[in-house]
Amino acid sequence: MAIDFKVGIHRSCTLYTRYEYRGNPLSDEAREGHRLITSAAAQELARDGRQLRRLLPFLRDARVGALPSGATPEQLVRALQAAVGRSEVIAVISKPLAPNRSAAPIQQEIRPYYETVTPSQLFGRTQPVVRAARSLERPRLPRLPADDGLAIWFARPGDVLPDGTIATPVSTPLGDAQPFGYSENAVGVDVTDLAARGVSEATESACFEQYERDMEFCSAIARPMSGSRGRAICEKNVFDNYQQCRGY
């Protein structure tokens, strides 16, 4: 007969008599079992009284020698170690069971994704805030091009613009005008109408086109600047330029 035998708390093996064991006595499992029994302390082998009561008839069946019915635990332990040492008893450590491949797959929880930031990136992002906190100053927001609309519009040639460039004169319909000679009035020309216009029809048309473009610019910058007040100032300057272009 074969019996399971515990050694200490966490180790165990199976004991076989020599004539009933059908395995290889030189296998790794048999060698490990041999080493486990022969090297164990007496206290580890004798700690369980119930398995010692099963050990006595097992040793008698293995024919390891005469054992008295009232043998002490120490005598039983020494007899077991001697029988294993002489290969009269084969101690085998069971192999761990291989995992069942047909079992259902383990559902692994999908871990959430978090953006990773290196220490240098994190340090670099916090520098402007740290400097502003130390100096007790409000962080400076980036300046938008629309913020400089009025400054650019009212700049004169030679002024330094907010972006660091120098203002240059912009050509107007009369910027390249040339003197013209006097000519007699054509028959049928209304003198009053000519006096009211002051310039030729081509110049009048060019001035009006420039006037419309300037008014569109005022509408574009009114919202990001100062609303109706900024638009009114811009439109007044546009009208003055238009009148100047027409000769008034």
Keywords:
3 strands, 9 helices, 3-stranded antiparallel sheet, mainly alpha, rod-shaped, 248 residues
Quickly describe the structure.
It contains 9 helices and 3 strands. With 248 residues, it is mostly helical.
Radius of gyration: 54 Å
Count every beta strand, where a strand is a DSSP E run of 2 or more residues: 3
Number of helices: 9
Structural class: mainly alpha
CA-CA gap between termini:
130 Å
With strands numbered from the N-terminus, the spatial order across the biggest sheet is: 1-2-3
Q: On the 0-100 scale, what is the average pLDDT?
A: 75
Outline:
rod-shaped
Largest sheet: 3 strands, antiparallel
Strand portion = 5-15%
The portion of residues assigned to helices is 40-55%
Low-confidence stretches: none
User: Helices and strands, in N-to-C order?
Assistant: EEHHHHEHHHHH
Helix-strand blueprint:
Blueprint lengths: L2 E5 L3 E7 L10 H12 L2 H4 L3 H13 L11 H13 L3 E4 L26 H17 L13 H5 L37 H7 L3 H22 L5 H18 L3
Antiparallel strand pairs: 1-2, 2-3
Helix pairs in contact: 3-4, 8-9
Describe the structure.
With 248 residues, the chain is mainly α. Helix content is 45%, strand content 6%. Among the domains are: 3-92, no CATH class; 171-245, no CATH class. Strand 1 and strand 2 form a beta hairpin. Strands 1-2-3 form a three-stranded antiparallel β-sheet. The mean pLDDT is 75. Helix 3 packs across helix 4 and helix 8 (201-222) packs antiparallel against helix 9. The N and C termini lie far apart (130 Å). It has helices at 28-39, 42-45, 49-61, 73-85, 119-135, 149-153, 191-197, 201-222, 228-245, and strands spanning 3-7, 11-17, 89-92.
